[in-house]
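INFO worker-7 received task bundle
INFO bundle size: 2
INFO processing item 0
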Amino acid sequence: MPLQIRLPKPYDRLKPRLDSMQEECGVFGIYCNGSGINAAEAAYYGLFSLQHRGQESAGIAISRGGRIDCHKEMGLVSGRFCEGLAGLGGSNLAIGHVRYSTTGDSLLANAQPVVIDTPAGQIALAHNGNIINAKELRAELEQEGIAFQTTVDSEVIAALIAKYSGSGLIEGITKASERMKGSYALVLMTRDGLYGVRDPKGMRPLALGRIDSAYVLASESCAFDTIGAEFVRDVRPGEIVVAEGHGLKSHQATHAAETALCIFEYVYFARPDSDIDGISVHRARERAGELLAISSPADVDVVAAVPDSAMPAAMGYARQAGLPLTIALSKNRYTGRTFIEPSQDKRERGVSLKLSALKRNVRSKRVLLVDDSIVRGTTSKYIVEMLRTAGAKEVHLRISSPPVTSPCYFGIDTSSHEQLIGANHSVEEIRKFIGADSLCYLSMEDLYSTVECAACNFCAGCFSGKYPEDVAERMKCGRKNCLNK
């Protein structure tokens, strides 16, 4: 019997998915301290460099004239959003956010930053991650009379900080951190200060940079290069950094028994020119390819990558195996994120809009194709068929990560367990469904070898089903996004 892939349930029609891990969110903050830098402009360019982390909405908040102003738009930073920048000048303090929704609907009301009044004054907050006990915290706060304007867990975080900030914002953040379970990298601003907060396990990345006397916070260090800032260090798990007045202060809010940075940052999410917790993303991906070449060789003519995130792994594979590297697939740079309805023909049409085969490079050749992961398998199947139609004699698929067998509950939009092809089928069954001549994955042992000497330990729950927090109640839902719906 041919392998059958279950189609999404009706609720997935609300936000159709591609056959891949989807983006998280990106956060950015800058405190200029009279350095003459336009904070809003710097935030714009910083968000532009983090666009790969979220493409549903974007927002920038600034402090000006004793109050916080905020501009948000749906879509890309380079779209309508830039039109609102003219009204955000004249400030030396700004934070920004690009969003891919993992909780809450994709609506302008749910775009960030979130602005809220607290006993310590007005604050704006931008969040990357997912609070797994947000539903319970929200119910508690609503019973206390707090009215919510959005359906996102970021507003729950802001309200919780406000609740505990009677003696100051540091105390409010510290006590809120003790109540929250899950992942969060926060940038938060008052009228005159910038705060960066990382969850106690360090699940989501947050980097600190500097340009002259200005301090910068960002989800990835690549954002610093865009504005000419210098990387200083990663914010430590459980740390609060505060830029105000004429300096930077650090507070250790909470301590984690064991850190758990999301290892998928190195596999797919982060830009290759970023360094996270002491590890080069590009080098980690190259190393994955090298290890794949050692563990899973193939008698082929050329090596190629599924663009773009798998390119470093393909480079590593080709170099280690002594094989030529070619471009087998061309990517359309102007499609953006393509939202495809959950039917096979429309999903395939979406892939054809993004990718096309270079016939001259693959015709009559045995091609080894490297990709970073397989989620559903439907896109991989279509790509293999595309290469065969273009004349490839054989197509061997190598994946620079282990099989994705479990959903993520900490801020990555994976499919439900029943839709993960690696959770329900053997490697051989997947190979037959995709139509590849061979299929091999990177082992967990080799994956960890790619990030040796990192400053953090890792969460690899999507590969192992073992999570750094208790997610039993969430697993009963059968759907990660049930938190706020």
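INFO item 0 finished
INFO processing item 1
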Amino acid sequence: MTIPTPSVLLSEAEVAECVAALAARMAPHVDDETVAVCLLTGGLWFCADLMRALSRLGRNLAFDALWLASYGDARASLGRCEVRADLQRPLAGRRALVVDDVFDTGLSLSEAARLVKDAGAGEVLTCVFARKPWPQPRAIVPDFVGWEAPARFLVGYGMDAAGAYRGLPYIGALN
């Protein structure tokens, strides 16, 4: 089976520039008591780079993860979120920064923000690397967005097609 090569939308260098610029915008809003809550599995690449960029700016956030599944191996949301792994770190009274790779329907980010708030976070901020346009209103608007993406099926930098392409250092499209 031949695996198609994605068309490059954002190069590796452009990804790094977006992350650095986003960290600079975020730094005044977070501190060392903030807990970054990475949405697995796609958000891992972006969250790691973002935390390093924030650290270079003197912000050393704590780390936690929340594993939600809303796509499976499909190219469209299943319309519900399944919690596959819950938070491990106490959030009571703390600021939490929910970090995800792509904002599409908004379902995962909305559910994650709700779960983090229910875990006792005093404040919940949200951050996505890429925000895709959507034809209808979404339940949540991310507080921080790194890149306004086109309405295409994105892969790379944590985003996948049935588990493939996550490790690409750039953002590509398959359609």
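INFO item 1 finished
INFO post-check item 1: The chain has a mean pLDDT of 89.
INFO post-check item 1: The first helix runs from residue 12 to 26.
INFO worker-7 idle
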